[in-house]
Amino acid sequence: MARTETSNFSHPTPINNLASSVSPRSYNNSTNLTKDQIQRSDIVKTEFTAREGVYKVSSIIDNLGKFGTNTSLSESVKITLMTRIRTVVDSNSQSSSRRSSTLNNQNSITNGIDNQSTENSNETKPSSISNGTEINQPNGNVIITEILAFNVGRELIIYEFAEATQSNFGEPIDHRIYKQNHQPTCHDIVQHPDTNVLHILVGFSKGQIQYINAQTKEQKVFNEGSYLDKTKVTCIKWLPSPKTYFAASYSSGYLYIFDEQLNHQRDTTVQPCYTTIKDDEKNFSISYLKNKSKQARNPVSRWSIGSGSINEFAFSPDHVLLAVVSQDGFLRIFNYEKKELVAYMRSYFGGLLCVRIREILHQISSS
C-alpha cells in the first residue's frame, strides 16, 4: 500500500515559496565571502545549510495553480509516496507499455466529480521521467519508478519520477482541479501486483468518493449526492483483500467499507437503514445495510467508532489489525477479520490526528 503523510499549510507566503528538498550535507567553498559578509548579505538565498543537510528551493509544486485558479488551503495536505513496479515483456513494447500505464501523460482539469463535471480537457505532455531502474527478469524487464501524489486545496497532482534526488520532476502525469465546493481531502493509490495499472481513490469535503482507473480512464462516484454521509472524508485506503474493497472514514465518526465493483446506485431520496450485528456501547458498533432485494449494494458494512470524528486509520502489514484514531482522543485497535476490539488508549492532549503501524512487532505510533 502507499504511504501517506499529513501536513497543514497555514503560512501566509505564496505556495511556491514553501517547497524545499533536502540533500546530503555538503559544503561549498567556492565563495570568497567571509562569514560576516554572508550573514549581512541582503541577497535572497535559494539554499542554506543546516545540521541535517542542505535545504534547496524545489520546483515540485510549481504547477500548483498554474491554470489561474485560487487554491484554498483550508484542508490539510495529504501526500502519498509509493514505488511502482512495471513489467515490460520486450524492448519493442516498452515505450507503448510506459505510455499506457502512466495515465497517458495526461493533464486533466476536472471542474467537478463525474456527472457534475462541466468541463474536461486532456492534454498529452512529455513524460516526467526518461527511464527508471530497469531489472532483467526471465519473463521480461522490470522498471521501477516512484509515484508522488498530493491533494492540496482543490487540486490533485501526481508525479512519476525515476530517482528521489531529481531536482525537477517535470510535468505531472495527472493534474485535476475540482469545483470549489468539492475539495479533495484525502486520496489513496494502489497498483495490483498482476497489472501495471494504477487505481486511484479520492475523498471529498462533501462526502463523495471518486474512483479513477489510470489506464482506461474509467471513473465512478460513490456516495453521490451525499446520501450515505454528508460530512467530509477524512481518510481513505484500499483493502488488501478482496482487492476491490476499500475503506473510508468520515468526520461523522463512521467508517464505511465499499466494493468498487458494485455499480448499483440506490435511490438517494430514501435514507439508508442499517442492521447492527455487533455493538460495544462504549467503543464501536458494526452494521450492515438492510437490503430486501438480493442485489448487492454499497456500503458493504458501516463501523461506528467512538464519539467524534475519525481522523485516520491504518492497517498492520499482515492486514490483521486495524488502528483508528479519533477526535475523542482514543486510539482503538481492532482485529479486522474477527471484528473485535483488542486494545485502546486515551490521549492526554485531546484528539489524535494520525496513526501508523510498523512491521516490527506491530509497533503503533499516533499523535
How would you concisely characterize the structure shown here?
The chain is mainly beta. The protein is built from two helices and 25 strands. It has a domain at 15-58.
Report the count of strand segments.
25
Work out the helix count: 2
Shape: globular
Query: What is the SS-derived class?
Result: mainly beta
Q: Which blocks of ≥5 consecutive residues have pLDDT under 50?
A: 5-30, 65-69, 93-111, 114-130
Give the ordered list of helices and strands: EEHEEEHEEEEEEEEEEEEEEEEEEEE
Estimate percent helicity: under 10%
Largest sheet: 6 strands, antiparallel
N-to-C span: 21 Å
Task: Quote the beta fraction.
Answer: 35-45%
Averaged pLDDT: 73
Q: What gyration radius follows from the Cα positions, in whole Å?
A: 22 Å
Describe this structure in words.
- The protein has 367 residues and is mainly beta.
- The protein has a domain of 44 residues.
- It has two helices and 25 strands.
- Strand 24 and strand 25 form a beta hairpin.
- The longest helix has 8 residues.
- The relative contact order is 0.10.
Layout of secondary structure:
Layout: E1 3-7, E2 20-23, H1 35-40, E3 47-50, E4 53-57, E5 77-88, H2 94-101, E6 133-137, E7 140-152, E8 155-161, E9 174-177, E10 184-191, E11 198-204, E12 209-213, E13 219-222, E14 233-238, E15 245-250, E16 254-259, E17 274-280, E18 284-289, E19 301-305, E20 310-315, E21 321-326, E22 330-335, E23 340-346, E24 355-357, E25 364-366
Antiparallel strand pairs: 1-5, 2-4, 3-4, 5-7, 6-7, 7-8, 8-9, 10-11, 11-12, 12-13, 14-15, 15-16, 16-19, 17-18, 18-19, 20-21, 21-22, 22-23, 24-25
